[in-house]
Amino acid sequence: MSESVKVIVRCRPINTREKDLKCKCVVSMNGAKGQCSIVNPADEKAPPKTFTFDGAYFVDSTTENIYADIAYPLVEGVTEGYNGTIFAYGQTGCGKSFSMQGITDPASQRGIIPRAFDHIFETISVTEGCRFLVHASYLEIYNEDVRDLLGKDAKQKLDLKEHPEKGVYVSAVPKVQ
Ligand SMILES: Nc1ncnc2c1ncn2[C@@H]1O[C@H](COP(=O)(O)OP(=O)(O)OP(=O)(O)O)[C@@H](O)[C@H]1O
């Protein structure tokens, strides 16, 4: 059985501000081993600290490859009725939107979300003898305030509630069908 939780790490290229500040890249990656190594810039002779993940993607990686390796099997599972979640985590400017939403040019960097939408609707269009129901909601959580970005009033703060059986949920989020 495959693991139920997978964690991958993606390193973005150094940006202009960091270049101007003469920052050096202290990260190296071994994609085959899923390893990420960090050297101490103040002591380059010190052994690097190495961390192992389910996947390690360096600055030249594409979202196309990340989707094929990680998201594709998960979304396939969803179309077969299993639950699946993909989320991006990291400090501001590290590339969460780049990975999830992506850019259209080059096409290899289209994000995980539009790829997943294409994947789901493509599967639905070729599957016979089965009915699918697709819901979507789009929430922003910022400074612990929750907002519905597809709602009529995207400024309205929504309440976070807890149900004894269903768990934590956001009140009054309309789902788009
Ligand atoms: N893998 C990458 N290759 C090239 N550019 C990248 C990559 N990842 C991020 N960038 C660029 O870095 C900048 C910051 O990325 P992004 O906006 O995705 O960060 P974020 O984590 O979503 O930030 P925030 O939390 O502030 O919203 C953007 O200009 C984006 O195009």
TrEMBL record:
Q: Where is the Kinesin motor domain?
A: 4-177
Q: Which UniProt keywords apply?
A: ATP-binding, Coiled coil, Cytoplasm, Cytoskeleton, Microtubule, Motor protein, Nucleotide-binding
Predominant location of this chain? Answer: cytoplasm
Q: Which domain of life is it from?
A: Eukaryota
**Any idea where this protein resides?**
Cytoplasm, Cytoskeleton
InterPro entries noted in UniProt: Kinesin-like_fam (IPR027640), Kinesin_motor_dom (IPR001752), Kinesin_motor_dom_sf (IPR036961), P-loop_NTPase (IPR027417)
Biological processes, Gene Ontology terms: microtubule-based movement
Gene Ontology MF annotations: ATP binding; microtubule binding; microtubule motor activity
GO CC annotation terms, alphabetical: microtubule
Protein residues bound to ATP: 90-97
Q: Which family does it belong to?
A: Belongs to the TRAFAC class myosin-kinesin ATPase superfamily. Kinesin family.
Name of the featured protein: KIF17
Specify the species.
Answer: Bugula neritina (Brown bryozoan)
